[in-house]
Design brief:
Elements lengths: L1 H39 L5 H5 L2 E2 L4 E2 L2 H32 L4 H14 L3 H15 L6 H25 L3 H9 L4 H28 L4 H6 L19 H10 L4 H39 L1
Antiparallel strand pairs: 1-2
Length: about 290
């Protein structure tokens, strides 16, 4: 009887500890978001979103920075997502549980821990200078794609690991090859969870400043890009510049908070779209 009471008490203590910690984390998150929205929502209007910047970015809108950020997100995902998914498939499905797999996984984990400014310097040395792409959307997208690559690889591995081996064995028993099994069985079932890696990658690359500082970001460029070899403004760098500029501090800070609100909304909208796609794929393959 006493042991049962201790079990119930310990479970209750653990439950409330985790609940309080979760509420604390949520409270911190909502306090940060609330602070930014309260400070910046008054600046956000249609003109702020659709107009070009003026007077060294202290007036006007942030339209080029929005377009530049979307271009960089799209470009980095076009590079990182296919390569990351194929790499994850190769590591989990084609390499045996050996020192080679463990070494690749260790290197992937180390790559995920590399500071973003190191990626920026590498991107500048390779894409901007060595390959001759210059300060461009292409250089920035490839650099951000490298930054997102480890997240996509690890998420793909975990998604494939979550699929029971009985599905693979049943496919082999029906005469399917390994490639056919991956294409028809395991990859469709893992795809909803792989989309999680896409969501996490979008959240990371959309707010990075250091990589684009060396590869693509322009200080003041009130025009839209016409090719992948053009420089662009980007919301993270725009936010950094107007926050640290010494002119018109009050007005600049208002624009900085407004820019932060727009950046958060863009990430939120892209995450919602990705979640909708994930739920659709989950329902589709569950019914099939």
């Amino acid at each position: 009887m006493q042991s049962d009471f201790k079990k119930i008490l310990s479970q209750s203590i653990a439950f409330w500890t985790f609940r309080i910690l979760s509420l604390v984390v949520m409270g911190i998150l909502f306090s940060i978001l609330g602070f930014i929205f309260v400070k910046g929502i008054g600046v956000v209007n249609w003109d702020f979103i659709t107009q070009m910047p003026e007077d060294g970015m202290t007036k006007g809108g942030i339209y080029p920075a929005i377009i530049g950020t979307l271009c960089l997100i799209a470009g980095s995902m076009l590079f990182a997502f296919p390569i990351g998914v194929m790499s994850g498939i190769y590591i989990f499905e084609y390499t045996k549980d050996s020192w080679y797999r463990k070494f690749v996984q260790l290197m992937t984990a180390n790559l995920a821990g590399v500071p973003s400014i190191v990626f920026g310097l590498f991107g500048m040395a390779l894409f901007v200078n060595k390959l001759g792409f210059g300060d461009s959307i292409l250089s920035g997208s490839l650099t951000l794609g490298l930054l997102a690559l480890p997240v996509v690889i690890r998420t793909t591995e975990e998604a494939l690991k979550a699929i029971d081996n009985s599905y693979r064995e049943a496919s082999y028993a029906l005469g399917a090859s390994k490639l056919q099994t991956i294409k028809r069985v395991t990859l469709p079932m893992a795809l909803p969870n792989i989309i999680t890696g896409l969501i996490l990658s979008i959240g990371r690359v959309s707010g990075e400043t250091a990589p684009i500082l060396f590869t693509v970001a322009a200080y003041f460029l009130p025009k839209l890009p016409t090719s992948v070899f053009d420089q662009v403004m980007a919301l993270p760098y725009h936010l950094y510049v107007i926050s640290t500029s010494g002119t018109n501090i009050a007005e600049s800070r208002g624009m900085a908070y407004g820019t932060a609100v727009i950046l958060i909304l863009i990430v939120l909208i892209l995450n919602i779209i990705a979640n909708i796609i994930r739920r659709f794929l989950t329902k589709k393959y569950k019914t099939n």
